[in-house]
Amino acid sequence: MEPTPGRGYEVTPDLVMAAATRDLPAQVAAFAEVAKKVDAHRLPAGAFGNVEASATAANAHVDFLESSRTRFALTDEHLNTMIAGMKLAAAAIQRFDANNAARMNAKP
């Protein structure tokens, strides 16, 4: 998962596909990888794009999953793993945003 110019990180179809496999270890690994990539990026101020919208998208995906429990026949374990992963990704995005804002506001 790479940042999209002008838009930041997004909840991408590959995350949804990883979730659809119902392979819980693979899902946890996929979500953890997203968080690592977000935390590892140290871009110049302003280069990240709209991280707030990306975090909002991750949180909206959590809401979607919670409301789609019966539609996708999700077990509690499966649903909770996906929700935890999306929250992890959203938190990583928000941490990056806070760190980036701090760098932008730092005096030389």
Question: Could you name the key traits of this structure?
Answer:
4 helices, disordered N terminus, mainly alpha, 67% helix
Q: Tell me the number of structural domains.
A: 1
List the helices and strands in order. Answer: HHHH
Rg is: 15 Å
What structural category do the secondary elements indicate?
A: mainly alpha
Protein name: PE family protein
Can you characterise this structure?
The chain has 108 residues and is an all-alpha fold. It has one domain. Helices cover 67% and strands 0% of the residues. The chain is built from four helices and no strands. It has helices spanning 13-20, 24-40, 51-67, 76-105. Helix 2 (24-40) packs parallel to helix 4 (76-105) and helix 3 packs antiparallel against helix 4 (76-105). The protein is elongated and about 55 Å long. The termini are far apart. Residues 1-10 and 41-52 have low confidence and may be disordered. It comes from Labedaea rhizosphaerae. This is PE family protein.
Write the layout of secondary structure elements.
Elements: H1 13-20, H2 24-40, H3 51-67, H4 76-105
Helix pairs in contact: 2-4, 3-4
